[in-house]
Structure formats: structure tokens, C-alpha cells
């Protein structure tokens, strides 16, 4: 289904030399140098440009909330969707600040809402099933999620977008994400769960027990698509598909926090070359995130103690991508500036 090629190595030496010849001590722009090289490789160009950034916030409800795994009621998912539509959430603020186009996607929330050009209907159902009792969704729903996501990316590509970010909103989704992480990596349940929206120690233990029960129900590890069917969220399945589709279209993919990184892990397990297109934007405060990033050998750009989701960490990293491209294109070399090397 996916045709994703590794990023080009053709110009790597040329770009490295260009970066090293800029008027700065060798390596002094640190992670920004790695980022500039990655973007240049993605675009197979020594003079990359970022055009028409687009973010999507995928929202979905989770049957696992019946187990009391979140600090907030599940109604908050739909209420926050209206907040996104009205422009009042953190992600709205950061997208406005950085001129990023933002769309909200109903991936499968339980309430009925009015769709518009900014609130898109990709609903796969009125929330997932409680994954302790049965699979969260069917494998057909996973495939629908992937094809909806592919269409969203194709639409953005047609309008000239080459950098995208994905956020999510779903009360209960840190438990779903932790379950997916455990299912595809084999990492033990208590290392995958965290406080999410702010549960106490007993809540964290409950989440670990929920994930352990799920592992017992499905008899251990699963491939990424089966894992999504077993314990996924509609928004996580759609983010996974969108990351794969964006990699297929050679876009820069801004990866947000814990839940988005689980989607990135699934995408990477489905098509390892997709990893080349991922910019890991921030280290979330969610406990399993460091361990998850290590699975992908990822070093995040920012560490701000954030744990909000919505794509907020990714939006904050967008100007760093702009800076990386700008220094590569605009900084003088030692030769140009007459500075001794
Ligand atoms: O992105 C993160 O790292 C992150 C970490 C903790 C919580 N969240 C957000 O909080 C919600 C899920 O938390 P919970 O406790 O309901 O599982 C969901 O809407 C996520 O966007 C997000
Ligand atoms: C208010 C609120 C906003 C959020 N945004 C993403 N997850 C969230 C969870 C809550 C509870």
C-alpha cells in the first residue's frame, strides 16, 4: 500500500560542506545543522524551502475511558473540538502565530457536530470500543483511517504544502497509545503508561493494569495494523496513515508528543523509510515518551516540560525548521565574508 523511499544521499556531502563552511565554529549550530541537512535531504536540494505549512488535529473518543483511566470526562473531547473550531485552543494560538493552516478532523468523536471547511468529517464511528472487552476497531476501520489520511495529504500536496504537522485530541488516548507502544515493542506495560491529563499514582497503576490485561487478551505482541485494531484510537490510526502518506509525498513531518510519537512508531514499523521524514519536535513530560523516542533513535528538538498534545510541540518547532532552512540559504561562508577559517 505504501511506496516510501529513503531520503536522498546524493547531496549529503555537498550540504555538509556548505554547512561547515558557514561563518561559525564547526558544528556550532548544533541540532539546527542536523535539521537543515535532513530537510535538504528530504527535498533533495541544497537550497530547500518550506512552503504552505498545514496542521491537522485529529479527534476521537475512546471506549477505554469506561475504565476510569483519565483525569477528565470523555465529554471534553467534543468540547475541545468546538474550542478548536472557535480558535481558542493552544494549537490555534500557535498556528496563528506562525501562519500555519489548521484543520480539525472528526476521526470519530461521539457527539454530533456540524462540519465546515475547517472541521472535516472523517468519522469512523462514535468512539472506539472498550479494548479490554473486544477490539477497539475493525481492521476495515484501520484501512478507512489510512485512506482518509491519504486524501487529506493529497489535497495539501496539490496546494503546494511540503511541511505538515499532526495533533490529536482524545480523552483516554494516552492509555490507548501506551497499549500500542507495549503491543508493538514488547516494552513492559508500566514503562509505557504515565499521568496523561494528570491522574495520580493510583491512576497510573490502573493504566498499567489495563494495558497488562489487554496484553493478556491478545496474547502479547502484534504487528502495527493488528495493534491499531486491538487498542488504537481512530485519531491515532489516522495520524499513522497521514505520516505514511506525507512521507510518501516527501514532506517534512513534524512529530508532536507521546501520542503522535506512537503513531510515528507504528508508521516506522509499517514502512521503516518513513522515519527519514520525521522531525521529532519535543520531549513530552509523559513518562513513556523518552523510551518511545529511543525506539526510533530520535533526539527531540525541544524539552519544555509540555504534555498537552494537539500538535502544540510540533507547532513550536516549526520556526526552528524555518531557522534551519534560513541559515543554510542565507548565511555567508568563510570565503564570502573574508573570515579566517
Ligand atoms: O502529547 C502528549 O505528550 C500528551 C501527553 C499527555 C496528555 N495529552 C493529551 O491529553 C489527552 C489524553 O490524556 P488522558 O489522560 O485522557 O489519557 C489527549 O487529548 C492528549 O492530547 C497529550
Ligand atoms: C482541557 C484539555 C485540553 C486538551 N488538549 C489536548 N488534550 C486535552 C485534554 C484536556 C482535558
Number of domains: 1
Tell me the series of helices and strands, N- to C-terminal: HHEHHEEHEHHHHHEHEHHH
Instruction: Kindly identify the CATH topology.
Output: Rossmann fold
Distance between the termini: 50 Å
Strand order of the largest sheet: 3-2-1-4-5-6
Classify the helix fraction into a percent range.
40-55%
Catalytic activity: 5,6-dimethylbenzimidazole + nicotinate beta-D-ribonucleotide = alpha-ribazole 5'-phosphate + nicotinate + H(+)
Enzyme class: transferase
GO molecular function: nicotinate-nucleotide-dimethylbenzimidazole phosphoribosyltransferase activity
Pathway: Nucleoside biosynthesis; alpha-ribazole biosynthesis; alpha-ribazole from 5,6-dimethylbenzimidazole: step 1/2
What does this structure look like?
There is one protein chain. The chain is an alpha/beta fold. The protein has a single domain (54-319), classed as Rossmann fold. 48% of the residues lie in helices and 9% in strands. The chain is built from 14 helices and 6 strands. The chain has helices at residues 12-20, 30-43, 75-85, 90-97, 139-158, 173-185, 189-192, 201-218, 224-231, 234-248, 258-270, 289-295, 312-330, 334-337; strands at residues 54-60, 101-108, 119-121, 163-169, 252-255, 278-280. Strands 3-2-1-4-5-6 form a 6-stranded parallel beta sheet, sandwiched between helices. Helix 2 crosses helix 13 and helix 6 (173-185) runs parallel beside helix 11 (258-270). The longest helix is centred in the middle third of the chain and has 20 residues, at 139-158. The structure holds nicotinate mononucleotide (NCN) and 5,6-dimethylbenzimidazole (DMD). The site of nicotinate mononucleotide (NCN) has 23 residues, from strand 4, helix 6 and helix 11.
